[in-house]
Amino acid sequence: MKKMLKIKGMHCASCEILLTEAIEEAGTKVISADHKKGEMVVDMKDEKEMEKVKQAVKKEGYEVA
Fold it and tell me: How many CB atoms lie within 10 A of CB 30?
């Protein structure tokens, strides 16, 4: 299931890389990231996976809006 996330604080390509790595280490595939729009598209198995994604984003100092 593809899900678009708004990410507060993502403002450069390095942010994209950092967040992509963190989310993928948590077990969720990142399809795309766009720091200009502050958006990421992830491929989750189910809605339960969203909490893992939010925690991975928060751990890196960002926030899922």
Answer: 18
Cα–Cα distance for residue pair 48/61, rounded to 1 Å: 21
65 is written with which tokens? 């809006």
Ramachandran angles phi, psi of 28, nearest 5°: -115, 135
Complete edge-to-edge strand list for the sheet that includes strand 29-34: 29-34, 39-43, 2-8, 63-64
pLDDT digits (tens, 9 = 90+) for 5-54: 999 999 999 999 999 999 999 999 999 999 999 999 999 998 889 999 99
List the Cα angle 42/46/48 in 5-degree steps.
Answer: 100
CA angle, residues 27, 25, 43, in degrees to nearest 5: 40
Provide, for the chain, the percentages of residues in helix, strand and coil under a 3-state DSSP scheme, each rounded to the nearest 5.
Answer: 35, 30, 30
